[in-house]
Amino acid sequence: MHHPEKTGRQPAPFEGMTLLHGMTLLRDPLLNKGTAFSESEREQFGLRGLLPPCVLTMQVQADRVLKQFRSRFIGKCSPVHVFWGGLDIAVTRFSGRRAPEHPGGIPNLPDRVTREAYSHEVISHGWWPGQGPLGKAAFYSYTAPAPDGLSDAKLRPEQAFYSKDLGEFLMMYDDVRTATDPDNALMEFLQSTYEAGATLAKWDRAALERN
To answer: Which of 17, 34, 58, 69 shows its CA 20 to 30 Å from the CA of 186?
Structure first.
């Protein structure tokens, strides 16, 4: 047996869980990845014929819902894209107003780049694949500059929360994945965090949102 702590190799998904097979695996809400199971995993765990034939990775599914969310906004908005640096999938909305100069100080990011990136008010949403201080995949939202009271805003669904350490709203990927309706759970997180930031920052929502 190879030990990851000795070889440096990270265990593959589901390693050591080969007793779970077919419908037994799919009935476990913590392990059922749905259409995100790869072709090799479907073969290994006896899932052929038990899932739709297409393979939709976490990234593909996050991209799809973020694009639906983006379509609700008619103001200036970035495309859904892979963000350089963090390699997260992100989409950013702009109020159209200039922001106070950013103080800088973000690790590994030159201050001149930070000040250009945050020269105007933004609300950004995205999906982290699991790197960084969290260590787990999560959806996030932040408003820059952050208005007073943002951390106390009421969010949907109940699994969403504000991280004081990161200064952002978070919803863990596993909470989305195991929800009764994952698409709706994620859309509620995106919409409620946008509404919190835009309302408290006094964005002109009537002019920026699709009615």
So the answer is: 17
In this prediction, residues 145-158 reach a mean pLDDT of 97
Question: Given the structure tokens 């930070």, which residue do they identify?
Answer: 114
Contact (Cβ atoms closer than 8 angstroms) between residue 50 and residue 23: yes
pTM of the model: 0.77
Half-sphere exposure of 64 (CA within 13 A, CB side): 9
Strand ranges (E), the chain: 81-83, 88-98, 120-128, 138-144, 161-163, 168-172
Question: How many CA atoms lie within 13 Å of 1's alpha carbon, on the beta-carbon side?
Answer: 6
Q: What is the pLDDT of residues 94-113, one digit of tens each?
A: 999 999 999 988 887 899 99
> Is the Cα dihedral 134, 90, 106, 148 positive or negative?
negative
The domain segmentation of the chain, as residue ranges, is: 11-56, 58-208
Give the integer Cα–Cα distance in Å for 148 and 63.
Answer: 30
Q: CA-to-CA distance for 60 and 36, rounded, in angstroms?
A: 9
Alpha carbon distance 125, 89 (integer Å): 8
Task: For the domain made up of 11-56, give the CATH fold.
Answer: Hemocyanin, N-terminal domain (1.20.1370)
